[in-house]
Design goal:
The structure holds two protein chains of two kinds. By secondary structure, chain A is mainly beta. Chain A has a five-stranded mixed beta sheet, with no helix packed on it. Chain A has a five-stranded mixed beta sheet with strand order 37-38-39-44-41. Helices cover 14% and strands 39% of the residues of chain A. Chain A starts with a strand and ends with a helix. Among the domains of chain A are: 194 residues, no CATH class; 131 residues, no CATH class; 91 residues, PH-domain like. Chain B is an alpha+beta fold. Among the domains of chain B are: 80 residues, Phosphatidylinositol 3-kinase Catalytic Subunit, Chain A, domain 1 (Ubiquitin-like (UB roll)), CATH 3.10.20; 111 residues, Roll (Pdz3 Domain). In chain B, 23% of the residues lie in helices and 26% in strands. In chain B, strands 6, 7, 8, 9, 10, 11 and 12 form a seven-stranded antiparallel beta sheet that branches. A five-stranded mixed beta sheet of chain B has the order 2-1-5-3-4. Chain B is elongated and about 65 Å long. The N terminus and C terminus of chain B are likely disordered. Classes of the chains: A mainly beta, B alpha+beta. Chains A and B meet through strand 49, strand 53, strand 56, strand 57 and helix 7 of A and strand 8, helix 7, strand 13, strand 16 and helix 9 of B. Strand 57 of chain A pairs antiparallel with strand 16 of chain B.
Chain lengths: 974, 372
């Protein structure tokens, strides 16, 4: 494992250091991730795996404190080690009260990292405020501010014991670090003098308090409340009990939801920005996840696609500056990160360079292409930039740290197919997985879904002024649009995309917008089979007449399989201009130059009724019902929230989930788990399911002449080989492509065929189409005899060609009980010498192990566990690259990248320096001293770290050893 | 055959063996060279010759050292008969049409002194409807108990021959727990058990497997530590020639060897199992494991053919990776069908230069490094 791409699953907390310009995100599984400039990433994992509740950076330090839901505090720090920074846990601490005190006495609810960097103030549920010394996290008993002390200092008439319950907020005075503001849940706010241990001011709010924020000059502060109001309070030296200046309910007069957090930002022009979360009218907009920005007469309520976890404002970090001058609003929602540019008129969103929401529609398949030619790369980028015009041009505002990783050696693309019929192109060359271009296939078809173009419309006269932001949209209107297979030829720019309803689209890259008719063909895969009725979904209806396509990949041919079963395999040969596709019923070959169907072959066993009726109809209906039930949950959640008023959303989903689990468990208990032991037979269901398609120019008929061929492997262990006659280029349009079945191989063990490969006379896999034409590969050896490698789920077998006789085999399942899930040829280069490389098979098994098997002798080189075997979707989503790397989904929204090759490693390597300018200017000059002291002794730190061992950055797996092992095995065989 | 006759005429030396053959009431005596008995076909021809019944189909039987009348109908049991005969090999010949199959079997010779009397005087049990069971040469083995000599007696290794029958294997397995004796005392460990036998399936019809038998090994590989799904996959992958080692739930039918009682040895032999495993594995791999694996190729929509396996000149079995590296050979001794032979002459030429040169390493063939 090297790096995780995408958006953290179930984020639960957000923190930001204006000093380091780093952002921290905590998750429910106890992970914490730091992000700065693109490429600057750190990851840490709490041993407890508990939800991270709060994250606070220590001012002007490379340190941060996290609070978990088990009430433990953890101090993390970024330290330099071997030229790069690392995130490590330094201390942990759980607040302990006096013996016999209730747990609420020590339940931390608010944290203030004091600017002196020596003390952490911890507000608790019972109203006490504890001071913990940094970095030891030792409680300083004498500095504890108990609620009793606070009450003593207050005039007795307006206070009772209960007014000091639960500390909601702790805020340090912006100018005078000796004073802190303590906000209690019941509405009481006090300004506490730390030196003299006394209350200097107290403020009585009538509403339940949610949060507090100081104005920059310290003359005023603002409080926000449960009833959706916010109040400004003056702080003056003469009045000990000031009255509120202004009390506003921004979305009144009807009852509103709580404003949970508020910012007050001053600007040069005098009009402040007031930015707050929530506050929507309870009845009609109570289910919205909104953050409102008010600036003079401009007011916008950004409407997020999922629950808002937290947000912060990026404003000037210059402590001496007179105004805040906010530049960006950064919002962490449950499913995506949204950054709003506050400097540009209209407040556009900023295109994030990382933390992309991979799952804005569920990922249905992925495809990786290594080493993209520069020309294609630039064309894709230019197509993508036309789609991104509504984004702000502002540079990414979170830019702390320096990326010191070497530039990626090549351009890699990761293509993801989504349930809503889109294909997204990601730059997978480096640490940041960055969206380049988004392609939608929806336009070709007629669907009930109306194009969703209300995305960025600003409702001028509507109130509240809601504006949708974000791309997360998991609800697909038509599951048939889902993308199942993708194949991109990087040399010609041809792209083939196949989907759930048997649709196969061939596309070409066009730099201009264009309007044209998509040629449409139908492939009847059942042919002469009669008397069957397809009970699955209908095929997609196509749009008549010319269709307008934006610049980028534009479809020019559509083939629809009949019956419209999901496309299970796809192959494109850009040199011969042929596309092959397979479903559970058979496979076909289409000539996309002449736009003619060359042939179809039905692979269905006549008795296979299940496949005929649509194997996926049952799955689909299950999925549908799941979808519906989720919608129901969502609806009930919304309505119950209206009833009960906030708070319970997560718990309710959990309840529902728990109920599901319980039902599932009960079902399991009723039927004891048993497995049928039966040999596979020709009559089994889904034997005709086409699993793999492969084009090869090889010796199919005799050993003197080679010819183009198409190979297909089925679920029932059958391999079909077709001999193709492709006319020479000059007569390509005049003569038809012909195909003739040459061979049919039935593997006796009848296991599904998952891979077919032809090795040339030097036992090297045949190159990709056009690879030789572009001088990127040696032409294959056509002198020596070729070999055929057939990979089934159970065995690897090498046959001779053209006479098929078995030569070698490696049994996997019979010996280890695992089955092949994914197999690819990977090129392994030595990291020591450039001129050495070899091809091996990279195999992922159903147990999540990865095995490297040598070619052509089929020797197991190495095996190591990669994905948990229970993680079925992770195993299903795994995709290998051509150079021994791979990706798999560790959550619906995150790809984990791993590397099997020592040569190709993509991992974050970055440096976070203490920005010195800032610290020198800072009011506390102590930090500068400390800084220099710190810098003078880097060696000591290095020592220390070496002793303590493991990198937190790569907490999951220590890969280095494994990689070395692979390398030594590979080189040992030489 | 000439050799045998010459032997009959010659003196009874150390290497020869006397044969006394009986057909009807006629006896013939001759001798065979013990070290070179030849094939059964030759022997059969010889018997027909000496009894002067060249065109009569007969069944050949012999009495073994325990006095049982056992059939001779193939090379194996013929060689067995020759090797065990001491000093005399007694042969009984019956006409096939009036053969009495029940005469064969254990204790037949001791029970009834005279086979012929048995033939002439029908017994009580023969009044039952006569079930015609053909001779073993027409049988295909469907199951067997193997490796009895190396296994603890509480275990049973059963081989199911799927290829010999159209019957489904017909059993189910489940997770369960069994009690083992470990250095820390009795411990409950997870195990795999047979949960159901399908009526009429191969597993049930053999009578060798039963519900709640614990599965210990599949084709020589221990299942401990493997999940139910893994074991399922292993069994299905080996389904054409499945060898499973079980600990029968019912330990009373065990073969009792030595003087130990089967009850007390329930767990005591557990620890000896791992030590015998490599031995077992070797047996399995060198055995007929590969014979079941012939894939079929159909050329140009023609007749299905079995894919010839290039005959191994040397079979190297790496104990760790278990890869069989089969080298090409021009002597392809066991091509199954005649069409294969005709096409083989052409095929073998092209196959000649596919012989991997053992000195050539795969790593020499460098894949090209692609740079832009």
């Amino acid at each position: 494992q090297t790096v995780e791409h995408g958006f953290p699953h179930q984020p639960s907390a957000l923190g930001y250091s204006p000093f380091l310009r780093l952002m921290a995100i905590g998750t429910r599984s106890g992970a914490i991730k730091l992000y700065g400039a693109p490429g600057v990433e750190f990851m840490g994992l709490h041993e407890e795996n508990n939800t991270v509740m709060q994250i606070h950076f220590i001012p002007d330090q490379c340190q941060l404190v996290t609070l978990l839901d088990d009430n433990s505090l953890h101090l993390w720090s970024l330290k330099q080690h071997g030229g790069a920074s690392e995130l490590r846990e330094e201390h942990r601490f759980t607040l302990k009260g006096p013996p016999g005190s209730p747990p609420s006495a020590t339940q931390v609810t608010a944290i203030l990292a004091h600017s002196s960097r020596e003390v952490l103030y911890l507000g608790t549920e019972s109203g006490g405020v504890f001071a913990a010394e940094l970095p030891s996290l030792r409680v300083l008993e004498d500095r504890t501010i108990t609620s009793e002390v606070v009450l003593q200092r207050l005039p007795e008439d307006n206070c009772n014991r209960r007014s000091c319950e639960l500390v909601e907020a702790l805020r340090e005075h912006p100018k005078n670090p000796g004073q802190i503001l303590i906000g209690y849940s019941r509405g009481l706010i006090v300004l506490w003098d730390l030196q003299n241990n006394k209350v200097t001011h107290h403020f009585l709010g009538s509403q339940q308090l949610e949060n507090l924020y100081w104005q920059r000059d310290g003359s005023k502060f603002i409080s926000c409340h449960y009833d959706g109001s916010y109040t400004q309070w003056p702080v003056s030296s003469d009045n000990r009990q000031p009255e509120p200046l202004e009390n506003t309910v921004p979305y009144g007069p009807f009852p509103c939801k709580a404003i949970s957090k508020i910012y007050w930002q001053t600007t040069k022009n005098g009009l402040p920005y007031i930015i707050f979360q929530g506050g929507m009218p309870r009845a009609s907009y109570g289910d919205r996840h909104s953050i409102s920005v008010i600036h003079g007469s401009h007011q916008t309520a950004f409407d997020f696609t999922s629950r808002v976890i937290d947000f912060f404002i990026i404003f000037t970090s210059e402590p001496a500056a007179e105004f805040d001058d906010p530049s960006a609003l950064v919002v962490l929602a449950e499913e995506e990160l949204v950054v709003i540019d506050l400097k540009t008129a209209g407040w556009p969103a900023v295109h994030p360079p990382y933390l992309a929401s991979l799952h804005c529609s569920a990922i249905t398949c992925s495809h990786h292409v290594s080493n993209i030619p520069l020309k294609l790369w630039e064309r894709i980028i230019s197509a993508g930039s036309k789609q991104n015009i509504h984004y702000s041009s502002m540079p990414w505002p979170i830019d702390g740290g320096t990326n010191i990783a070497p530039d990626p050696p090549q351009r890699d693309l990761l293509l993801t197919g989504h349930e809503d019929g889109t294909v997204r192109f990601w730059d997978a060359s480096g640490v940041c997985l960055h969206l380049l271009y988004k392609l939608s296939t929806v336009r070709v078809f007629l669907t009930d879904a109306d194009p969703n173009d209300n995305m960025n419309t600003l409702g001028e006269d509507e109130w509240p002024p809601l504006r949708k932001v974000g791309t997360f949209d998991p609800y697909s209107d038509d599951p048939r649009l889902g993308i199942q297979k993708i194949y991109l030829c990087k040399y010609s720019g041809y792209l083939a995309v196949a989907g759930t309803a048997g649709q196969v689209l061939v596309m070409e890259l066009n730099d201009e917008d264009a309007e044209h008719v998509v040629d449409h063909a139908e492939a009847d895969l059942l042919q002469d089979q009669e008397g069957y009725r397809w009970k699955g979904h209908e095929k997609l209806k196509t749009r008549e007449g010319p269709v307008r396509f934006e610049a980028g990949f534009q479809p020019f041919v559509l083939v629809q399989c009949q019956p419209p079963a999901v496309v299970t395999s796809l192959a494109l040969h850009s040199e011969w201009k042929l596309v092959a596709f397979g479903t559970s019923h058979g496979f076909g070959l289409f000539d996309h130059q002449q736009k003619r169907l060359v042939f179809v072959k039905c692979t269905l066993h006549p008795s296979d009724q299940l496949a005929l009726e649509g194997p996926l109809s049952r799955v689909k209906s299950l999925k549908k019902s799941l979808r519906q039930s989720f919608r129901r949950i969502r609806r009930s959640r919304v309505s119950s929230r209206k009833r009960r008023g906030g708070g319970g959303s997560a718990s309710e989903v959990q309840e529902a989930n728990a109920k599901f689990d319980q039902d599932a468990l009960q079902e399991m208990e009723l039927a004891p788990v048993q497995r049928k032991i039966e040999a596979r037979s020709a009559e089994d269901s889904f034997t005709g399911f086409v699993r793999t398609l492969y084009f090869a120019d090889t010796f199919l008929r005799d050993s003197s002449r080679h010819c183009p061929s198409l190979w297909a492997g089925t679920n029932g262990g059958t391999v079909y080989a077709f001999c193709l006659r492709v006319p020479p280029a000059e007569r390509r349009m005049d003569e038809p492509v012909r195909a003739e079945q040459a061979k049919e191989i039935q593997l006796m063990h009848r296991a599904p065929v998952v891979g077919i490969l032809v090795l040339d006379g030097r036992s090297t896999p045949l190159p990709e189409p056009l690879e030789v034409a572009h001088d990127l590969s040696k032409s294959p050896d056509m002198q020596g005899s070729h070999q055929l490698l057939v990979v089934s789920e159970e065995q690897f077998k090498v046959f001779t060609l053209p006479k098929v006789s078995s030569k070698l085999k490696l049994k996997l399942t019979a010996l280890e009980g695992c089955r092949v899930r994914k197999v690819t040829v990977a090129n392994f280069g030595s990291c020591k010498t450039d001129d050495y490389s070899e091809n091996d098979l990279a195999v992922l098994t159903n147990l999540g192990d990865i095995q490297i098997i040598s070619l052509p002798f089929l020797k197991l080189q190495i095996r190591y566990p990669c994905i948990r075997k229970e993680d079925v979707s992770g195993i299903a989503s795994c995709v290998f690259t051509k150079y021994g790397q791979g990706f798999y989904l560790i959550s619906p929204s995150e790809f984990e990248r791993f590397s099997l090759s020592t040569k190709w490693l993509v991992e974050p390597r970055c440096l976070v320096d203490m920005p010195e300018v800032t610290s020198n200017n800072h009011v506390h000059n102590k930090s500068a001293v400390e800084n220099s002291a710190r810098k003078s002794s880097p060696g000591d730190y290095g020592e220390e770290e070496r002793k303590s061992g493991r990198l937190m950055e790569h907490a999951l797996l220590n890969d280095e050893k494994v990689l070395k092992e692979i390398q030594s095995t590979l080189e040992g065989g030489r | 055959m000439n050799r045998a006759q010459r032997g009959a005429a010659g003196s009874r030396g150390l290497g020869t063996m006397e044969v006394k053959s009986k057909f009807g009431a006629e006896f013939r005596r001759f001798s065979l060279e013990r070290s070179k008995p030849g094939k059964f076909e030759e022997f059969y021809g010889l018997l027909q010759h000496v009894h002067k019944i060249p065109n009569v189909d007969v069944l050949v039987g012999y009495t073994d050292i325990h006095g049982d009348l056992l059939p001779i109908n193939n090379d194996d049991n013929y060689h067995k008969a020759v090797s065990t005969a001491n000093p005399l090999l007694r042969i009984f010949i019956q006409r096939k049409e009036d053969a009495d199959y029940s005469a064969f079997g254990t204790d037949t010779m001791t029970r009834k002194k005279n086979v012929l009397s048995n033939v002439l005087r029908p017994d009580n049990h023969k009044k039952k409807p006569h079930i015609v069971i053909s001779m073993p040469q027409d049988f295909r083995p469907v199951s067997s108990i193997i490796d009895v000599d190396i296994l603890p007696e509480t275990h049973r290794r059963v081989r199911l021959y799927k290829y010999g029958t159209d019957k489904p294997l017909g059993f189910y397995i489940r997770d369960g727990s069994s009690v083992r004796v470990t250095p820390h005392g009795l411990e409950k460990v997870p195990g795999i058990f047979i949960s159901r036998l399908v009526p009429g399936g191969l597993a049930q019809s053999t009578g060798l497997l039963a519900v709640n038998d614990e599965v210990l090994e599949v084709n020589g590989i221990e299942v401990s530590g493997k999940s139910l799904d893994q074991v399922t996959d292993m069994m299905i992958a080996n389904s054409r020639n499945l060898i499973i080692t079980v600990r029968p739930a019912n330990q009373r039918n065990n073969v009792v060897r030595n003087s130990r009682t089967s009850g007390s040895s329930g767990q005591s032999t557990e620890s000896s199992l791992p030590s015998s495993t490599p031995n077992i594995l070797g047996n399995l791999l060198q055995g007929e494991e590969e014979s079941d694996e012939e894939d079929i190729v159909i050329e140009d929509n023609g007749e299905p053919q079995q894919i010839p396996k290039a005959a191994p000149t040397s079979e190297s079995i790496e104990s760790l990776s278990q890869i069989e590296l089969l080298h090409e050979s021009t002597q392809n001794g066991f091509l199954p069908s005649s069409e294969m032979n005709s096409s083989h002459s052409a095929g073998s030429i092209s196959m000649e230069y596919e012989v991997p040169d053992p000195g050539r390493k795969p790593l020499e063939e460098d894949g090209t490094i692609i740079t832009l």
